[in-house]
Structure formats: structure tokens, C-alpha cells
Design goal:
Shape of chain B: flat
Order of helices and strands of chain A: HHHHHH
Distance between the termini of chain A: 66 Å
Shape of chain A: elongated
Largest sheet of chain B: none
Structural class of chain B: mainly alpha
Structural class of chain A: mainly alpha
Strand content of chain B: under 5%
Number of helices of chain A: 6
Helix content of chain A: over 70%
Oligomer: heterodimer
Largest sheet of chain A: none
Radius of gyration of chain A: 22 Å
Largest interface: A-B, 56 and 57 residues
């Protein structure tokens, strides 16, 4: 094709251009679109669980309100801010990769990993508090107040939704380490930053899920 | 080939840094706003307000952090398509549950 781009004198094309793509631009757009197609499946995957939450909340609104009161608002708000900050550092890491700043990319990815770990650490503290309070569903559930069976269902949704979210974060942390290694090796630059961009899409998606989980699990009927 | 490029976003669009910081400030503002709003009794409006604020945050993240504002139309189609299917999932299921006298509504 006429628009094959010659990037260096040594190489007829960029070393990270796969042979089945015409140019870096086409490769970038194809990979980005592929990631969005995957995120679509993730929207519907989490969507099903949000729907289950909605149906049972319509059935047991008082139990859902009581369940939200068992959540620690300080930890929840803190974690929301930490996760939003990790999305900022992720976006800045993509910017650094785009502008060819190797070490800046590495350290911003590292900052994202640290913030993600802080989030998971706070989540672990919250989980251990729920265990101590006897709010973990199943044989460890020791709450005997009014609406106990329905509150146990709320806590099942709580652990299921935040647990799946945390699993996504752990996978994201693994991807971040992978990207840090590649950034360190100097793989990224103005011509080629698709892996960082796509990793960023995944990370921001996990942030999006939390943006909806936070009000639905921590904030509902807080005024009562 | 000229036509193909005309339809596409500018090559390697780099978002200015101030946009990222402004979006982050907006996200923190909305977070504090939603926590504050949750503590006030708005009657039946507490949950809708929380969801509207969450949606505003989501739109900020998708458009600017995820660069959708500078993405090709095909990316928009995929995203809107996913939201349409999510809408089908919710509307058909809730049309069923809400019309059976199974909930308090």
C-alpha cells in the first residue's frame, strides 16, 4: 500500500508493527477497538450482577438500607479517592508513553500500582472488620437482628461485587508490572504506546465499576 | 486510502495535561458531592441523585481518561452498543419483576 510509513533507516517498518497491519495507526486502532469489544463483555458481565442487586433491592429495600449502614463510609470514600487518583496516574503514564518519556512512564505506572495496592489493602481491612462483625455470609454469619436473612443476601452481593472488582484489580496489578518491565526496556514511544493505552482502558474500566459500586453499596439510604 | 484517513481521529492525539488534572478535580468534587448528598434526606430522590452523579463521573472517565472523545466513530458504536444491550437486560428483566406484585412497588 502507498502509505507504509518508513520510521528508521535500519528498519523498513517499526519493530513492533505486526505483519498483518498496514501501519502503526491501523494497528493502534485495531488493538484499541479489540479492547473496547472486550470491555463490552465486561459491561454485561458486571451488568448482570448489578441487575441482580437491583431486583433484590426492589424486593428488600429496608434490608439494603440496613446493609449499607454496616459499611464504613470513611474507608469507602478514602478508597474511592485513592482509585480515582490511580486512574489519574494511569492517564498520565499513557501521556508519558505517548511523549516518549521512558522513566516517567515507568514511575507513573509504579505510582498506579502503589495506589491500586493501597485500595486493595483498605479493602482487606474492611473485609476483616466484616468477618469480626459476623457479616460474612454463610456459617460465619452471626447477625441476628431484624431482616437478618435479607441482610445476609445484601452482604452476599457486597462480597460478590467488591470481590470480583478486587479480582479485576489484582489482574490489573499484574498487567501494570508487565507494562513497567516493557517501559523499563524502552519499548514505548511516540510511535508505539498501544499496550500502555489498552492497559489504561482496562484500569479505567475497573475504576468505572467502582464509581457505581460505591454509591450502591455504601451510600444508599445513608440519611435514614 | 485518503478517504480512510479523513474519517479517522488525528494520528496519535496527545491530550494536554491540564485536561487530566481538571477531570481529576471534577471526579473528586463529584465524590465529595455524592457523599454529602447521601447524608441529606431527599425523599425518593437520594438514589437517582447518587446515580446521576456516578454517571457524570463515568462520562468524565470514559471521554477523557479513556480518550473516547478523540476516538474513531467505530469505538463510539461499540460503547453505545454495549449500553443498549445493558438497557435491554435491565428493562426486560425489570418489566417482568415489577409487574408481578413480587416487589413492594
Amino acid at each position: 500500500m502507498s502509505d507504509v510509513v518508513i520510521h528508521t533507516e535500519e528498519h523498513p517498518h517499526h519493530p513492533f508493527l505486526q505483519h498483518h497491519f498496514e501501519d502503526m495507526q491501523q494497528q493502534h486502532e485495531a488493538s484499541t477497538l479489540g479492547m473496547w469489544a472486550f470491555l463490552t463483555t465486561e459491561v454485561l458481565f458486571f451488568g448482570g450482577i448489578f441487575l441482580g442487586y437491583t431486583v433484590y433491592r426492589l424486593a428488600y429495600p429496608d434490608a439494603w438500607a440496613a446493609g449499607a449502614h454496616f459499611q464504613n463510609l470513611t474507608y469507602g470514600t478514602l478508597n474511592t479517592i485513592v482509585l480515582l487518583a490511580s486512574s489519574l496516574t494511569m492517564a498520565l503514564a499513557v501521556h508519558a508513553a505517548q511523549t516518549g518519556k521512558r522513566m516517567k512512564t515507568f514511575w507513573l505506572l509504579a505510582a498506579t500500582l502503589v495506589l491500586g495496592s493501597v485500595f486493595l489493602g483498605v479493602k482487606a481491612v474492611e473485609y476483616s472488620l466484616h468477618f469480626e462483625e459476623g457479616l460474612f455470609p454463610g456459617s460465619h454469619f452471626h447477625y441476628h437482628g431484624p431482616l437478618a436473612p435479607q441482610i445476609q443476601l445484601f452482604m452476599t452481593f457486597y462480597f460478590g461485587m467488591t470481590g470480583l472488582h478486587a479480582l479485576h484489580m489484582v489482574i490489573g496489578a499484574g498487567l501494570l508490572i508487565w507494562m513497567m518491565v516493557r517501559a523499563w526496556k524502552g519499548h514505548f514511544g511516540e510511535e508505539y504506546y498501544s499496550p500502555v493505552e489498552i492497559m489504561g482502558l482496562y484500569w479505567h474500566f475497573v475504576d468505572l465499576v467502582w464509581i457505581f459500586l460505591f454509591p450502591l453499596l455504601y451510600l444508599i439510604d445513608r440519611h435514614k | 486510502m485518503e478517504e480512510r484517513h479523513l474519517q479517522h481521529a488525528p494520528e496519535h492525539h496527545v491530550t494536554p495535561l491540564w485536561i487530566y488534572f481538571t477531570v481529576f478535580a471534577g471526579l473528586i468534587f463529584f465524590t465529595l458531592l455524592t457523599v454529602g448528598a447521601a447524608k441529606i434526606d431527599l425523599g425518593d430522590l437520594n438514589t437517582p441523585v447518587a446515580l446521576v452523579i456516578a454517571t457524570c463521573k463515568a462520562v468524565l472517565v470514559v471521554l477523557f481518561f479513556m480518550h473516547v472523545i478523540n476516538s474513531p466513530k467505530l469505538t463510539w458504536v461499540v460503547i453505545i452498543g454495549s449500553l443498549i444491550w445493558l438497557g435491554v437486560l435491565f428493562s426486560l428483566t425489570l418489566a417482568d419483576y415489577l409487574s408481578r406484585g413480587w416487589t413492594i412497588y
